[in-house]
TrEMBL record:
This is DoxX family protein. InterPro entries: DoxX (IPR032808), DoxX-like_oxidoreductase (IPR051907). The keyword Ion transport does not apply. GO terms for cellular component: plasma membrane. It is found in: Cell membrane. Pfam families: DoxX. It comes from the Bacteria. It comes from Bacillus cereus HuA3-9. It is a multi-pass membrane protein. Belongs to the DoxX family. The lineage of its organism: Bacteria, Bacillati, Bacillota, Bacilli, Bacillales. The chain crosses the membrane at residues 7-26, 72-92, 104-126.
Length: 134
């Protein structure tokens, strides 16, 4: 029971965090984010995919659908963010720019959901439907 509560807390916090990050990217002007992606050597179009995934993936985590795999994909996004954007300033930053401690924590949360085989409400509901169908 305690593990389920822990999974729920991590799932909701991670889902809300990514949902808000995706929403902010669209509200602040996704074209600006695409320009920034280009300036750091990433394809500008990737910004649209990342923002959409953060928004939709965050919502799916909140609802509890595809929890393990969304967690894994978020962990991979954070690996990319750490390596491409934050690695040069270090874990705690360089005094001007923040480090990658937040990205590392989000990576760990996403990886945990995958490794722990965490499920959400909708995942469990669909699993029960499939088991009862047979």
């Amino acid at each position: 029971m305690n593990q389920h509560i822990g999974n729920l807390i991590i799932r909701i916090v991670l889902g809300v965090t990514f949902f808000m990050h995706g929403l902010t990217k669209f509200q602040s002007g996704i074209d600006n984010i695409a320009g920034w992606f280009t300036s750091i050597g990433l394809p500008g179009g990737l910004a649209y995919g990342v923002a959409t995934f953060e928004l939709v993936g965050g919502l799916l985590l909140i609802l509890g659908l595809g929890v393990r795999y969304i967690g894994l994909l978020f962990a991979l996004v954070m690996v990319g963010a750490i390596v491409k954007v934050k690695w040069s300033v270090g874990l705690l930053g360089d005094g001007k720019n923040p480090g990658f401690e937040l990205e590392l924590a989000l990576l760990a949360m996403g990886a945990y959901l995958f490794v722990a085989k965490a499920n959400g409400f909708v995942d469990n509901f669909l699993k029960e439907k499939m088991l009862n169908k047979n």
